[in-house]
Amino acid sequence: MKIPMPDETLIPNGPYRRLLAALHQLHEAAGWPGLQRTSKAIRARHDLPDTISHEAISKILRGKVLPQQWHKLESLIRQYLTWSVHKREDLETEVLRIHQLWQYAVTDPGGHDQEQPSAKTHSRAAAPADVEPTEKDHSEQDLLPPEDVVRQAAVLPREQASDFISDQALRPDRDLLPLIVLLMENIPSEGIRLLQQAGISHDAADNERLADFAARIQEYPASAWHDEEPLHALFRPLFGRSDYGIGLVNLLLKRQNTAALHAYFEIVARRTDPGTAADFLVDLSKRRGAPSTVETFLGAVAGQMPRPLAHGLAVELGRRKRYKEANRLHELLAAANEDSRPPGTAV
C-alpha cells in the first residue's frame, strides 16, 4: 500500500523531510508492503531490537510523528531492507546512513537544509558553517574507554543513554566484550542488548566470529553476568536465520564447545514450533557423529520446550517416520515428568 509523502506545507524541506523521503524510498523498494503485514513480520523476527505497531508505522510515514526511539525505527528500516533483498554489507551501510538522518531530524527537525550525510560520515556530522562548535556532543566523540562510556551513559536519560552506547559500540576498533561486561555490572539491560546485537547475523560467514565471541564469553566467571545467560542472549537472534544456525552447530562441535552447543540447543527448544524443530533435527541427523548430537538436542527439548510443543514434536517425528527419535523423546519427557514429581507422589 503506497502512502504519499506529506506535503511540504506540513513537513518543509530540512532534516525531517529528508528522513521521511528516505523511509518512503525504502517502503517503495520493499514493494509497498501493508502496515499490518509489516508490523507482523517485525514481531515474528528474533533478530530485531524492537517491535512496532502498524498504527505507529502509519503515523511515521504520514509525517504525523517524528520517532524519538531509534530501536523501533531501526526495526522498520531493517524489515524494509530485507524485503528489498539488500546484501548484508549494503544493508548495514543503509542503516547507518538513515541513523544519521534520524539524528539530524530529532536534533533539529525544522532546521535549515544541509548536505545529505553519507554512511561514511556516520556519527561525525559537521556543525553548520555559521555556527562555532562548542563541546562535542555524544555522537561526535571519539572511541571512549568502556569505563567512560558507562560513566557518561549513567547520567543520560534512558533513550539517550541507549543511543549513546549503541554509537560507541559501533565505533571502529571497538572490542565489544569488555564494554558489555562493564555494562552488565552497571546497566545490565544495555549489556544484554549489545550481546543480542552481536548475535544478529544473516550470513553463515559470521559463524567463526560468533564461535570466537562465545568462547570469549565463557572465559568470564558466572558472577560477571549477574544471573543472566550471556550465551542465550548472543545466540537468540541466530535462530531466525534461514539455515537455523546448523553451520554454527557444526563449528561448535568441531571446537568441542559443548557449553555453547547446549546453550544454542536450548534457544532452539524454547523458541520454535514442532515442525521447525523437526526440520532442525533432520538436518542435525545428516552430520557426522549425528546420534550423540541428536540425543543432546532431544535432551534440550525435554528440558526446555513447553510440554505441549515437545509432545507435538514427538508426534511430528512419528509422522516423518523418525520413530527412533520420537520414541527417545517420549522416554526423555516421561523421565522429566518423573523427576518433577514431589517425593511420595503416587504414579
Structural key phrases:
single chain, 347 residues, mainly alpha, 17 helices, 0% strand, globular
What is this structure, in a nutshell?
60% of the residues lie in helices and 0% in strands.
Chain-averaged pLDDT: 83
Helix content class: 55-70%
Low-pLDDT sequence parts: 111-140
Element pattern in H and E: HHHHHHHHHHHHHHHHH
Number of helices: 17
Q: What share of the residues does DSSP label as strand, in percent?
A: under 5%
| Count of β-strands | 0
Domains, number: 3
Radius of gyration: 23 Å
From the N-terminal CA to the C-terminal CA, the straight-line distance is: 59 Å
* Bulk shape: globular
| Structural class computed from helices and strand pairing | mainly alpha
Main β sheet profile = none
Region (Disordered): 108-146
Question: Secondary structure elements and their pairing?
Answer:
Elements lengths: L14 H15 L5 H10 L9 H8 L8 H14 L4 H20 L38 H9 L3 H12 L6 H11 L1 H12 L7 H11 L12 H6 L10 H9 L3 H14 L2 H12 L4 H15 L2 H13 L3 H18 L7
Explain this structure to me?
The chain is mainly α and 347 residues long. It has 3 domains: 15-110, no CATH class; 143-245; 272-340, no CATH class. The chain is built from 17 helices and no strands. Helix 6 (146-154) packs antiparallel against helix 7 and helix 10 (207-217) packs across helix 12. The longest helix is centred in the first third of the chain and has 20 residues, at 88-107. The radius of gyration is 23 Å and the shape is globular. Mean pLDDT is 83; it is low at 111-140. Residues 108-146 are annotated as: Disordered.
